[in-house]
Amino acid sequence: MYHNIDFIIVGGGLAGCVLALELLNRDTNLLLVDRPLAGAASPIAAGIANPISGKRLVLEPDFDDKQAALNKFALVLEQLTGYKILVELPQTRFLNTLQSQALPKLRTIPGLQRFASENSLPDTNRENSLIISNTFRLDIQTTCRLIHNILDSTNSRITTQLDYDELVIGCENIRWRDFQSKKVIFCEGWRGILNPWFNALPFNLSKGQLLKLHQPYTQPSLSNWGQWEMQTGTERWLGATTERNYQHLNPDIEGRDLLLESLTLARKRHVTNLPSIQKAQIIKQYAGIRPATVDRKPFIGIHPSYPQVGIFNGFGGKGSLHIPRAAITFADQLLFARNNHDQARLEQLLSN
After folding, report:
1. Do 35 and 151 sit in the same domain of this protein?
2. 282 lies in a domain?
3. What are the φ/ψ torsions at residue 158 (nearest 5 degrees)?
């Protein structure tokens, strides 16, 4: 006898957790299959939600809608648990030479005018920097833990490895062990490259390393010069590397040295009150693999040949901002068969 449910969600990182909570709040029955994954991004991700990003200082498309969905998600989880998981993170963006030269032109862009203002902070390079408003930090680790607890309270989470060979696809359902589900949704992070239904998708994984530094209590802030120093109020972080041709999943001395060298250059050029290498006491070094894609757009939708199999993955380093709105749209598709551009894109990619 099988336990009949609506969805099996594979992966207990941010993508799987947010989608699970969205579907749970819509009165569906689901099971989250969760096992800690070596090199997973969510356990170490900074959680920065930034309106302007990249070397070209590009305004995030549909930022208002994405931020509204993030705020709503954080409020819902706070009401359920009593924990505040989203805080504003005042950001100072320091510009390189090319960005500084292009600044007069950049200031004419409406989006940049809206979110960027002159820097008046002491101990900083004011001429070659901007204050970026509407920057927030989602505490991803606490978010996942809280949602895991919610799912555990209804026996809706299991901690085990799901082997693809155990899945039995029927005409209208899919079976796994003692469960019979309408669909299985893969939210596996970097492990998506091994998924037999979706391994043909153009993933572009990158390894990121961070350093947790010793610091006394300070107000939350973000100093961003390409790499960044983030102070959460209780912790201090230095990040992050972007390594496409990595050889292993572990932190290494090359990543540590790159971050410390970046800190030295930033202190010299931009922020005099950043800690020196000598005073930047490292508590711990971390590494994770971002599930990025070639065109920097996530993979969301149902497999065109296997309607019981779906994917919700590929958010790269912008999961905090992208995932809450994407979960709403995908839940609409799953429950009401509302196809969208994400589904059309997925079908096109899988047909190539």
Report:
1. yes
2. yes
3. -130, 135
Cα–Cα distance measured from residue 174 to residue 245, given in angstroms and rounded to the nearest whole number:
36
Dihedral Cα 297, 299, 302, 308, nearest 10 deg: -170
Q: Which residue, of 272, 290, 308, is where some domain finishes? A: 290
Residues 210 and 286 in one domain: yes
Residue 279's pLDDT is: 63
Say if residue 226 is in the same domain as residue 256: yes
Residue 188 near residue 10 (C-beta atoms within 8 A): yes
Give buried/exposed letters for 264-298 (b at 16+ CB in 10 A, else e). Answer: eebbeebbeebbeeeebeeeebbbbbbbbbeeebb
76 located within any domain: no
For residue 196, give the DSSP letter: T
Quick one: pLDDT at residue 216? 61
Cα 149 to the chain's mean position, in Å? 20
Distance between CA atoms of 76 and 70, rounded to whole angstroms?
A: 10
- Domain of 187 in residue numbering reads as 3-47+140-202+294-351
Residues with Cβ within 8 Å of residue 210, at least 6 apart in sequence: 44, 46, 237, 238, 239, 240, 259, 285, 286, 287
Tell me if 230 is assigned to some domain.
yes
What CA–CA distance (Å, rounded) separates 228 from 17? 27
Say which DSSP state 162 is in: P
* Number of domains, the chain: 2
Run of H or E residues at 7: strand 3-10
* CA–CA separation, 142 and 139 (whole Å): 6
pLDDT of residue 182: 97
Whether residues 249 and 310 share a domain: the answer is no
* Residue segments in the chain with a per-residue pLDDT below the cut of 50: none
Q: Are 320 and 47 contacting, i.e. CB atoms less than 8 angstroms apart?
A: yes
pTM attached to this predicted model: 0.94
Q: What is the CATH number of the domain that holds 253?
A: 3.30.9.10
Q: What is the pLDDT of residue 141?
A: 96
181 located within any domain: yes
**Residue 101, pLDDT score:** 79
